[in-house]
Specification:
350 residues, DNA polymerase, domain 1, TIM Barrel, 2 domains, two-stranded parallel ribbon
Length: 350
């Protein structure tokens, strides 16, 4: 029985250099292969044109590259592109390219399904099948960069970890992928153009701060009242707002970066002055800004977009308290590509 080929992207640059030395070749061949894999995002050995045909054939004989495939693509009337991404084991996740006037943003997934149970999110209805690997996260960015150049004639400018899954529940692989994306030997993107969005896991937020990350942090907050948060995000029973706030203070002290709060206002849930005042008080505890996000329906009757005048009230009180706030209009709603809508409707997830 023939042993399965190993995925060459599981090896570091140093390991590849040592591999070639053992084969009687030059160590720099390993650097060349690593550059093709992570700097150029190449998935086929025969495209590594500065290697001899013999070397390429040898690599193809002994290794594989388990890359993703864009299995299905949908385009919104606003230009947003949603991709159904097929993984090497047949499972499917979704990623989104979001174009605006001066930039294109990749919204990437970190898990097949999700580990958490937010009631307003379509992805949370899916079972968590597994974490994505470093290369699977990296490949989403490469694919969307290609789409950005093809459809909008400019390279990808920003990345948000706001797709399927809770990024901090796949901590090592998400940070490993970001390292590949930002490294000069990888894609060389600035970490300042990357935002990781979490539902709020205090210990892991502190760990990120201790690990000295350079990217931006967004927290899916939606209410600064613990009882309400537990109702709409049941996992929050184990992660009280006081603990979350403590971790965000720690984050700011360590990194010097402000926190962005993502906040949807729903009718009958958080559309009153009690919630507005609680949010203002919460924001005053650590330097922050607020994105008030348009709700994207997922068929849950309990969640309905609040009236415009309530959104205006939020904006007025935040502004009066000198807290930066914006209203973010959703894009890609007509193809279920907006925040909270990613649910693999067109593909099996098993």
């Amino acid at each position: 029985m023939t042993a399965a080929k190993k995925d060459i992207r599981a090896y570091s640059s140093e390991e590849l250099q040592e591999f070639f030395k053992v084969q009687g070749d030059k160590a720099f061949r390993g650097k060349q292969v690593y550059q093709w894999l992570w700097n150029k995002g190449i998935h086929q050995f025969d495209k590594m044109t500065n290697l001899s045909k013999e070397t390429r054939a040898f690599l193809d004989e002994h290794f594989t590259i388990n890359h993703i495939a864009v299995d299905q693509q949908q385009r919104s009337k606003d230009g947003t592109i949603k991709n159904a991404i097929q993984l090497f084991d047949g499972r499917v996740v979704e990623s989104v390219l979001i174009p605006v006037k001066d930039r294109t943003t990749a919204c990437v997934s970190s898990q097949v399904g999700c580990s958490l149970d937010c009631k307003f999110c379509a992805t949370a209805k899916l079972d968590r099948m597994r974490n994505l690997k470093i290369d699977e996260i990296f490949d989403q960015v490469v694919a969307i960069d290609h789409q950005s150049k093809a459809y909008f004639n400019r390279p990808l400018s920003n990345i948000v970890f706001m797709g399927m899954g809770e990024p901090l529940m796949n901590y090592n692989n998400v940070l490993g992928a970001i390292e590949k994306i930002t490294s000069p030997s990888g894609l060389g993107m600035s970490p300042k153009r990357i935002t990781l969005s979490t539902s709020g896991l205090p210990k892991l937020i502190k760990k990120m701060a201790d690990d000295g990350v350079q990217f931006n942090l967004a927290v899916s907050l939606h209410t600064a009242i613990q009882e309400t948060r537990e109702q709409i995000m049941p996992f929050a029973k184990n992660f009280p707002l006081l603990d979350l706030l403590d971790s965000l203070k720690y984050w700011h002290e360590k990194t010097g970066k402000i926190v962005t709060y993502e906040y949807v206002v729903w009718e009958g849930i958080n559309d009153n002055m009690e919630h507005i005042r609680a949010l203002v008080d919460f924001c005053k505890q650590v330097p922050s800004k607020v994105n008030l996000i348009e709700y994207n329906a997922i068929g849950e009757d309990a969640f309905r977009q609040a009236r415009p005048e309530i959104i205006n009230q939020y904006m007025e009180f935040l502004s009066a308290s000198h807290i930066t706030a914006t209203v973010r209009r959703s894009r890609g709603k007509d193809i279920d590509a907006a925040c909270g809508q990613l649910a693999n409707k067109n593909k099996q997830n098993t």
